Amino acid sequence: MRTPWRTCRRRRRAHLITVTAVRYLAATYAQLGQLDKAKEEAAEVLRIDPWFTIDQAIFAKICKRPEDGEHFNDGLRKAGIPE
Q: Which has more confidence, 71 or 59?
């Protein structure tokens, strides 16, 4: 079974990196309590897109359930992405 974070990791390894995949990795690692990895991914997000902020994260705005979007944003916060 493939999980979203495994797919993102696989894509990253295959150099098919998109900033979106790296954002998801940062949030996922943070919510899993793997803050060192989350912060590494957040640094990569900000290297690729230095002006990215949580307010620009579209995922949270399009979720059917507001709590899913807040969970994602919380992961980004924990990873160190600025508001």
A: 71
